[in-house]
Write a structure and sequence with these properties.
Elements: H1 4-16, H2 22-70, H3 74-79, H4 82-104
Length: about 100
């Protein structure tokens, strides 16, 4: 995207202005101005859906973790520190979701 605008400006300055191609000059300027807006809009849309995906997956995995921990026997929690276990599981899930988002990109 960032290479298109200098190319368009070069065409306008080197070809269209000396040959007095008014329609192409106007079209090139419009294109030169709209490309950054399109780029920012696409990045915003991508970030929105990425955040939406992360929230959905994070909540889904957190619920699965809690379900797995809730149905363990009490003797299991006597042997293990439950808060430490939940903290470790949460860190692992955050790493997994980040990896999944990077691979989807």
């Amino acid at each position: 995207m960032s290479l298109i605008t200098p190319f368009v400006m070069g065409k306008i300055i080197d070809e269209y202005i000396p040959k007095r191609m008014i329609f192409r000059i106007v079209f090139g300027i419009i294109l030169f101005v709209t490309i950054p807006f399109i780029s920012v809009g696409l990045k915003t849309i991508y970030n929105y859906y990425t955040i939406k995906f992360i929230r959905k997956k994070g909540n889904e995995y957190a619920i699965k973790i809690m379900e797995n921990l809730m149905y363990k026997e009490m003797a299991y929690f006597d042997r293990e520190n439950s808060l430490e276990l939940l903290s470790y599981a949460s860190k692992e899930i955050v790493g997994y979701v980040n990896f999944e988002v990077e691979e989807l990109s």
